[in-house]
UniProtKB/TrEMBL annotation:
GO CC entries: eukaryotic translation initiation factor 3 complex
InterPro entries listed in its UniProt record: eIF3j
PANTHER family the UniProt entry points to: EUKARYOTIC TRANSLATION INITIATION FACTOR 3 SUBUNIT J
Keywords: Initiation factor, Protein biosynthesis
Presence of keyword Nuclease: no
A GO term for molecular function: translation initiation factor activity
A Pfam match: eIF3_subunit
UniProt name for this protein: Translation initiation factor eif3 subunit
Length: 95
């Protein structure tokens, strides 16, 4: 269905209508670009937080002695291992 203005021109194809249509399309593109940029920023922040958490977690694992990473090889290190076990079991004492 064509809409004709008073001058007999097609209303949709007037310069004013085309300009408004172009501006609307440009705003829509800018909104999409903004949303994509925001999503990328959020993803980057999540990845940085994950990386920080992972490095902190692995730093604790490798720098501290724990039952997970400690392998006794001598009598003295076996005593250290026994001490680590006893500290872990204290958490489960009923008292």
């Amino acid at each position: 269905m064509e809409v004709v203005c008073a001058h007999g021109e097609n209303f949709i194809n007037t310069p004013k209508a085309r300009k408004k249509k172009d501006i609307t399309a440009e705003v829509a593109v800018q909104e999409v670009q903004y949303l994509v940029t925001e999503k990328r920023l959020q993803q980057r922040l999540v990845e940085e937080a994950d990386y920080k958490f992972t490095t902190e977690l692995s730093a604790k694992t490798y720098n501290e002695k724990s039952l997970d990473n400690f392998v006794p090889r001598s009598e003295s290190t076996f005593l250290e291992y026994a001490e680590l076990i006893s500290h872990k079991l204290v958490l489960f004492e009923v008292g």
